[in-house]
Amino acid sequence: MKPCMTCFRLRGCNAYIIKQHRTILVDTGSVGDGKRLLRRLDQRGLLQDLSLVLATHGHADHTGGLAVIRREGADPIKIAAHHAAAPFVEAGRNAPCRPATILGHLARPFIVLMPRSPQASVDVVLRGEADLLPYGVEGTIAPTPGHTLGCVSIVLPTGEAIVGDLLMTAFGRGTAPRLPLFAEDVGQWRQSIAGLLDRGVRTFHAGHGGPFSASQVRRLLEHVQSRPIAPGGSVAESDG
Ligand SMILES: [Zn+2]
Ligand SMILES: [Zn+2]
């Protein structure tokens, strides 16, 4: 049996469960989404089987449900995050939102209006690649900085990857992947995307919209690579 993935489209973001020998939950949406996720996991009989809850990065639209899942889920539930994301997850603060596109500049003032995540302690602090087999799933957690410096992706042997906000559609609409609205480091974003393509990822599952094919992602990467990065870190808005 290969790892099997299911996407839950929440108010805040897409969350994913990966089920194989045990079950891993990736991202938990905004505040309020945690209870919704708990119900869905319970209905499927997966709540007792959760071996890990992974935050792809430290933004409140992905970490809002961590605390409630820790509090009300089966005991003990381990929470994992990259070491550059862990301080933000633990403090219930957002990692920096540095606009990468014109839309990002327009959206930036509204970030402060988003509800903050409740604080959630991180049990598994990731400092490099990590094998998911100890958590009952064949696959790898790979650091993929760019959107934030603490972003990670999950790469599965099925040719699928969950990449958080490394890729997204514009405000969750349309079908083409775009550069995220915010990118702490566009150069690292390019390297992370190229690295995932080099690993042979064929399907990219994103935090907002998607999934995207490797050929769509390759086209976006070529487009972004053809654009100069402005001193502020922005690039011209992608046509997708
Ligand atoms: Zn984000
Ligand atoms: Zn997001």
Question: Any descriptors?
Answer:
single chain; 240 residues; alpha/beta; Metallo-beta-lactamase, Chain A; six-stranded mixed beta sheet; 7 helices; 23% strand; binds zinc ion
Walkthrough of the structure:
The protein is of the alpha/beta class and 240 residues long. It has one domain: Metallo-beta-lactamase, Chain A. Helix content is 26%, strand content 23%. It has a 6-stranded mixed β-sheet with strand order 1-2-3-4-5-6, with no helix packed on it. A 6-stranded mixed β-sheet has the order 7-8-9-10-13-14. A hairpin with an 8-residue loop joins strand 8 (140-143) and strand 9. Helix 1 (33-43) packs across helix 3 and helix 6 (186-198) runs antiparallel to helix 7. The longest helix is centred in the C-terminal third of the chain and has 13 residues, at 186-198. The termini are far apart.
Structural class: alpha/beta
CATH architecture: 4-Layer Sandwich
The CATH class turns out to be Alpha Beta
Mean pLDDT: 92
Uncertain runs: none
Largest sheet: 6 strands, mixed
Q: Identify the CATH homologous superfamily.
A: Ribonuclease Z/Hydroxyacylglutathione hydrolase-like
Shape: globular
Instruction: Spell out the helices and strands N to C.
Output: EEEHEHHEHHEEEEEEEHEEH
Strand sequence of the main sheet, in spatial order?
A: 1-2-3-4-5-6
What is the CA-CA span between the terminal residues? 35 Å
Task: Present the secondary structure layout.
Blueprint: E1 4-9, E2 14-19, E3 23-26, H1 33-43, E4 50-54, H2 60-63, H3 66-72, E5 79-82, H4 86-91, H5 102-111, E6 124-126, E7 130-131, E8 140-143, E9 152-155, E10 160-162, E11 168-170, E12 173-178, H6 186-198, E13 203-205, E14 212-213, H7 214-225
Parallel strand pairs: 3-4, 4-5, 5-6, 10-13
Antiparallel strand pairs: 1-2, 2-3, 7-8, 8-9, 9-10, 11-12, 13-14
Bound molecules: zinc ion (ZN) (2 copies).
